[in-house]
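Researcher: Next sequence.
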Amino acid sequence: MQNSTQTVDSVFLFIVAISVALLAGITITMIYFVLRYSRSRNPEAENVPDNHLLEIVWVVIPLLIVLAMFYSGWKGFRFMRTVPANAMPVKAIGQMWRWDFVYENGRTSDELVVPVGRPVQLLITSRDVLHSLFIPAFRIKEDAVPGRQTYLWFLPDSPGVYDLFCSEYCGQGHSSMITRVRAVPAAEFAVWYRREDKQPAAGLDGAALLQKKGCLACHSVDGSKKIGPTFKALFGSKVLVTTAGQEREINADEEYLRRSVVDPQADLVKGFPPVMPQQKDSLSAEELAAIVEYLKGLK
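Model: Next structure:
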């Protein structure tokens, strides 16, 4: 089965071949005219009569070339927008500055794991601003738009690890919005797909969750300044926030930590932009508890 890589490459090479041929033809013609009709060879100007056949040729041939390039591109576009019936659907959700992938059985992952030999359809959206999902190895790119679902598909035809990143500038942490596509044999994928993705609450690592969920792209744990306030010594401190348009000082207790994660727009910390999306649908109760416990221990 043909994949998107072959389709895009064939269109690209076809257009490049035509462009190179035109460049060579035009350059040779220019050199010929410079030599053939130079002043030394033609000291007196001559009247060149009309040539209707020549005029028709130089209109029809470029038209046919343009139509050929259009047809090649249209054929490739139609192929890439027609999803195979047996494609595996995966939701791809972008937010500043990470990707989440949700499978049909409810399993979530921060990297895209796919089986070799089966088409994959990505159902793409965004939780906050405009992003763009780009996998260079498969020559595919599609915008992730808040409140709207777009799609694309590709066929991983060999095992490997490939880069996946955002190609639409989405803020200060844009360059860190990168993850991987991991194409594995079908048997290995089946084992991964069925494996339980949850750990018991006691085994959850708050520090690892902060890294996995992309929190450390905006917040630091060592006091350094980033887009959002630092987590260092946050618990128990006094925080100046704006709540419902009113500025107030509150104590950063456990309730505040939970509320700031689940509904970050409720209390906006003064001096920081209100760009953090709500995490209600991204964290389980156990994960939230583990993160809060970790934040409480940061001194």
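Model: Residues 242 and 268 are 5 Å apart (CA to CA). The chain is about 35% helix and 25% strand.
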